[in-house]
Design a protein that fits this description.
It contains 14 helices and eleven strands. It has helices at residues 28-36, 50-61, 78-90, 107-112, 132-144, 167-179, 205-208, 239-255, 261-271, 275-301, 323-328, 334-345, 376-384, 392-413; strands at residues 3-4, 72-75, 95-100, 117-121, 149-154, 183-187, 213-218, 231-234, 305-306, 314-318, 363-367. The chain is globular.
């Protein structure tokens, strides 16, 4: 069984690649709301002001999760909320379970609290949600070793794999987890970035087992720029959920984890989903879906493995078939692959070890934001163009990506003269 080592003094605790940004200029209407609130000197209360909580309730209710303000807490980004949740649920000796791979920022919060995080394999067709049988086996083995698994973090629309777990798998996994007494934290940061929403069924675990699921959504996924940290959490409407909510507010208070008033104003506006926000979000999703599909084609054509991206602004590639030519270039693990591709592509290419995969596995997450151009003008043109893949700066970026991977493929076929 693989477990992150709380005593490790390097790696994801110190370096966690950020969420893949959309690469686009800030929506003018959002900027105007933030600017209008810039003169406010008052601090937001811990957990969010009433207006923000009401906006979050509306957001979830429109997605089939009826919510009241007493169920909601807001914080300056999902990491702060997950840290508070982890401390509240597993700070007294309990253990945490996460998928392998998983978002880079999940396991470090267990480490910060001195708790182990056990990685559970995901099935071949999707990431983010552990295989139910592997989950049951992991729980059994942890308990045999004297552990106390109590918390499972998962995501239906996933970072890093960019996949959406099918409802059947999710149901089996959630059923297995709740039967074992685990509380689930569902990271739904990417739920509004599904590339083909009319063809992809996305179900929240909170719709299946509302009494044992806390939902966390970082607004940087689809509503706010990453530099404006804001996130919301939805707790079960039960006695245990109310206790957890209160405990999380205690921890956020101790951390001084408040959202800045101007950011809170922008967050409330975005959560209300007025037309400018929804139109920008839909256009952004369409743009990144097309660029991600083109990047996926380039990576697969070079001989690498990659699941077709279904959500988000990224894809996850496995270069195991290119291990031989990579070894000839001094690349034998994910860190060396990260170094090579970051240098060749001129953009961050974090290795799979950042996401809980084995260091020896040659996996990497590629973001689509850097492929949209280097200036605000270029990126805005991508957003408004009927065919962004035909824009010269996007073509150049995709050509560079193809060339980097084709070089590996060609190196595999090349033989030195005799």
């Amino acid at each position: 069984m693989r477990r992150t080592d709380p005593g490790e003094d390097h790696g994801p605790v110190r370096y966690g690649p950020p969420l893949p940004a959309d690469g686009l200029p800030v929506l003018p209407e959002l900027a105007a709301v933030l600017s209008a609130a810039a003169s406010r000197a008052d601090a937001q209360p811990v957990g969010g002001a009433p207006a923000l909580l009401e906006a979050a309730c509306g957001y979830w209710t429109r997605r089939g999760l009826p919510t009241v303000p007493d169920q909601v807490a807001a914080g300056p980004g999902a990491p702060a909320l997950l840290l508070a949740l982890t401390a509240a649920l597993a700070g007294d000796g309990a253990d945490i379970l996460v998928p392998r791979p998983c978002a880079a920022w999940w396991a470090p919060y267990a480490r910060v609290l001195g708790r182990p995080a056990y990685h559970v394999p995901t099935p071949a067709e999707s990431g983010g949600v552990p295989d139910p049988y592997a989950l049951l086996e992991t729980v059994r083995r942890v308990r045999e070793e004297g552990g106390d698994p109590r918390l499972l973090v998962l995501s239906v629309a996933d970072d890093p794999t960019a996949t959406v777990a099918p409802p059947e798998l999710l149901h089996e996994t959630v059923e297995a987890a709740t039967a074992e007494g685990l509380h689930l934290v569902s990271d739904e940061t990417w739920r509004d970035t599904v590339h083909a929403p009319r063809e992809t069924v996305l179900v929240s675990p909170a719709e299946m087992w509302p009494d044992q699921v806390t939902v966390v959504t970082d607004l940087a996924g689809a509503l706010l720029p990453p530099g404006w940290p804001a996130a919301v959490a939805r707790f079960p409407l039960t006695a245990a959920g109310r206790h957890l909510h209160a405990r999380v507010l205690d921890i956020l208070t101790a951390l001084g984890a408040r959202i800045a008033a101007p950011v809170a104003a922008a967050a409330g506006y975005a959560l209300d989903e007025p037309p400018p926000v929804t139109e920008r979000r839909e256009a952004t999703v369409r743009l990144h879906a097309r660029v991600a599909a083109a990047a996926h084609t380039a990576v697969v054509a070079a001989g690498a493995f990659a699941r077709p991206p279904q959500a988000g602004r990224h894809l996850y590639a496995d270069l195991a078939p290119l291990r031989e030519p990579l070894a000839a270039q001094g690349v034998g693990d994910a860190q060396e692959l990260e170094d090579l591709l970051t240098a060749r592509l001129g953009m961050p290419a974090p290795g799979g070890h950042r996401f809980g995969d084995d260091l020896g596995a040659l996996r990497v997450r590629l973001a689509t934001g850097p492929l949209l151009g280097g200036t605000d003008e270029d990126r805005t043109e991508c957003l408004t163009s009927p065919d962004p893949l035909e824009l010269p700066h996007v073509q150049r970026a995709l050509t560079s990506l193809r060339s980097a991977f084709d070089d590996l493929r060609d190196a595999q076929r090349w033989e030195p003269p005799r």
